[in-house]
Every structure is written in structure tokens, then in C-alpha cells.
Structure prediction request, 299 residues.
Amino acid sequence: MRAIEVGDLVMTYGELHAVDGVSFTVEEGEFFGILGPNGAGKTTTLEMVEGLRRPTSGTARVFGEEVWPRNKRLLPRIGVQLQASSFFERLTAREQLQTFAALYGVGGDRGEAWLERVGLVDKADTRVNDLSGGQAQRLSIACALVHDPDLVFLDEPTAALDPQARRNLWDLLSGLTDSGRTVVLTTHYMDEAEALCDRVAIMDAGRILELDSPAGLVRGLDAPTRVTVAPGQITVEEARRIRGVDEVVDSADGIVLVTRDAPPVVARLAEEGRLDGVQVHTGTLEDVFLSLTGRAYRA
Prediction:
């Protein structure tokens, strides 16, 4: 059975089509990502799939059941970490997790376990409104997972975290699907999607532009490879004479050889003993994202 089936989902606000005919499926045990610039329709799409918002038209099914009208049978099987969470302000982090555990009918020991897993043991007795933004974000994720749901929705879960905390959380999130759990993630971090997701949908203006594995999306971009040779290893004139080099750029980091056929170019550098300090940069998911959505600033 598929975890999620979305068919021609639409959400309109007057003349605005926030979500405009979105269709996709998510398999059980899959880590599925949705990427897009601000206002692309990511959060609205998730809210309809979660059963929090009634679609204008289209269908959304989770584990074979309709999510709207609000389906109470699905609630114990779903965990949701919203982009902005509201807590009981006067409760401590421990009390907050114990409350969520009780609402789902599970023991308070689950809350203690999740405090440790998200690195909040030393903040267990701190009131929620005294936590930093990153700490509150980690608590929000713990609350979404405390009842061990089959399907988890994470809306920009690492947005307020520092780089070290982000990497630690990646380790946690990457293991969520090991026991068959399904995860749906929205994020602005391309490296995060590449590291965690089995497949990624790129959205803009309420539509899905591309959907594939991160590696598949990069292959489809057909981006050139940039081979950077350390300063002093080669001259611009020598680089231009290497067969397969389309362009040569003299940069502060060294001489950059732009090519669409990297193996023979690198082999020639090896033959000439010029590999010391060489860096090879291929296309990335960020390149795909910018190619599809453009570089203009979004409000």
C-alpha cells in the first residue's frame, strides 16, 4: 500500500492558485522531499495532505483513506512538525513531551527517550518560552515523533538550527525510515535534501516542475563539470590545449577547466603530473533548483 496518494490537488484563494493541480505518490518507507522557493505552495500542499486544510478540489489519501473530512482513524498514525509551533508556554520541555505522549495514549517514558534523542536533556526543566529558537524546533520534532507514528511530516525542521545541530539532526532523521516509517520533508537546504531524500519534488507557483531522485535530477540537468587546478600547476594557455576543455577561467582558487567530458581531461592532467590539489565539481541539486525556479528574490 502507498503511504500517500495525491491527485490533481488544488487550493485557491480568490484568483490566487496557491496549489494548482499537484499529483504525486509516496511509497511506504520512503523519505520524500518537497523543495521550492517561498510561496511555491509547499506548506499548503502538506496541510491538505495532513487533513488540516480542505482542498478546493482534488484528492489526498493516506494509507488508502481520505484525509478530509478530518479522519480521526489516521491521527495516531501521523506525526506533524509544523513550520511554526505553539506550545503550552508555562510547561517545561519535559512536561510538554509528557503532555503530547498522554494525548496519544503512550507512556511518559517515551518523552524522556525523545528528550535524549534530540539533545534536550539539560533543558528538560526549562520552560518552553525560555528555549532558544533551535531548541524549540528540536522539541517540536520530538513532539511529532513521541507516539511513534507510521508517517511523519516535517516542515523545514532544521530552519532555526546551527550547522552542528543540523548535522546531528540529520543523523536522527536519516534513521526514521529504517523501521518502515515514511517521512515527508520540506526544506530550503539543498544539501539536506540530497543527504536525506530518496526522491524530491521541486515546486514553484503551485505546481510540481520535476520529481525524481536527487541524483536523477542532477543527471537530467546536463551541467558542465568544473575542474579546478591549484595555482602554479598549469597556465591558461596549457589548459586551453587540453582536448575536451570548453572554457578556461583564471580564478583566485586556480585555473578552472570547464568541460562536459571530464574523464579524459582529468586523465590528461594525471599524465602531466598536475593532479596535486585538483578539485572536481559536478552539478548539484542546487543547480537543478535554480535552473527550474530562477534566481530572482522571492518575498
About this structure: DSSP finds ten helices and 14 strands in the chain. The longest strand covers residues 2-13. Residues 156 and 197 are 13 Å apart (CA to CA).
